[in-house]
Amino acid sequence: MTAVLETRALDKRFGGLHVTRGVSLQLNAGDRLALIGPNGAGKTTFVNLVSGVLAPSSGQVLLNGEDVTDRTQAQRVRAGLARTFQITTLAPHLPVQRQIELALFERERLTGRAWRSIDAYPLLAAEARALLGDFGLAAHAGLATELLAYGEQRLVEMALAIALRPRVLLLDEPMAGVPQGEGTRLLAALAALPAELAVLIIEHDMDLVFRFARRIVVLAEGAVLADGTPDQIRRDPMVRAAYLGA
Ligand SMILES: Nc1ncnc2c1ncn2[C@@H]1O[C@H](COP(=O)(O)OP(=O)(O)OP(=O)(O)O)[C@@H](O)[C@H]1O
Ligand SMILES: [Mg+2]
């Protein structure tokens, strides 16, 4: 089976700072991988290298076996990679439904016609409604995104990523800043992600990590410290010393 995402000896230096050190990882269809590690371990940098926000100092990124190291972010999205950001990056004034529609137009390469009503494309209109329903956003479809609760904005972000029909989804701290009371809906949305999608999630909340992940990779000082099942990681003395505490 070809990995949907593979990194080979990824390395990144910012001047004298060696932030990513020889990270080789494979993600297969249906994986639920949590990438954990202390603050500054290089988790976000890794996602930035994979998604093309940053160019590596050396090493490769492959999507479905194809080397995309020199491709732009947009080209990687076309190749099946979607991500959300640690800090929300939505267009705040646009209604939720419109944002989803624009993502669908984008996916179908209809952006030149995005000024048209989506009703001219009944299949896309139905898909937009389904996405709003799946992520529990139907009641707020007409509201500007900035008027939604923070946790709901994260749901919009996830819906936008899924609208692109990715094969790999990278989630950088989706629960960050989400109040306790809103967390349940996000957890439900995570649990309901398409089964065949490969998901990599960065998260500091260990409850969520151990509930969601079927595999955990621990990053420390830019390098992979451990890679295993939640049980293996829980018992790994090196991980406990470096991160989980005794
Ligand atoms: N553009 C940059 N220029 C210089 N240094 C950077 C840059 N981006 C990140 N770094 C440094 O790289 C290291 C890793 O940062 P990164 O944001 O990847 O960590 P992280 O594991 O995501 O941490 P957190 O859990 O706090 O989000 C840090 O020391 C950070 O200061
Ligand atoms: Mg980070």
Characteristics:
alpha/beta, four-stranded antiparallel β-sheet, six-stranded mixed β-sheet, Rossmann fold, binds adenosine-5'-triphosphate, globular, about 250 residues, 9 helices, binds magnesium ion
What does the model show?
The protein is of the alpha/beta class and 246 residues long. It has a single domain, classed as P-loop containing nucleotide triphosphate hydrolases (Rossmann fold). It is 35% helix and 24% strand. The protein has a six-stranded mixed beta sheet, with helices on both faces. Strand 7, helix 6 and strand 8 form a beta-alpha-beta unit. The mean pLDDT is 91.
User: Distance N terminus to C terminus?
Assistant: 38 Å
Level-1 CATH class name: Alpha Beta
Binned strand content: 15-25%
Number of strands: 10
Identify the CATH architecture: 3-Layer(aba) Sandwich
Identify the overall geometry: globular
Overall pLDDT score:
91
Largest beta-sheet details: 6 strands, mixed
The number of helical segments is 9
Structural class: alpha/beta
Strand order of the largest sheet: 6-7-8-3-9-10
Radius of gyration: 18 Å
Ligands: adenosine-5'-triphosphate, magnesium ion
The structural domain count equals 1
Please provide a brief summary of the model.
With 246 residues, the protein is an alpha/beta fold. It is built from nine helices and ten strands.
Please specify the SSE layout and strand pairing.
Layout: E1 5-14, E2 17-27, E3 32-36, H1 43-51, E4 58-63, E5 66-67, H2 73-78, E6 81-84, H3 96-107, H4 122-134, H5 150-163, E7 168-172, H6 180-191, E8 198-202, H7 206-212, E9 215-220, E10 223-228, H8 230-235, H9 237-244
Parallel strand pairs: 3-8, 3-9, 6-7, 7-8
Antiparallel strand pairs: 1-2, 1-4, 4-5, 9-10
Helix pairs in contact: 3-4, 3-5, 4-5, 5-6
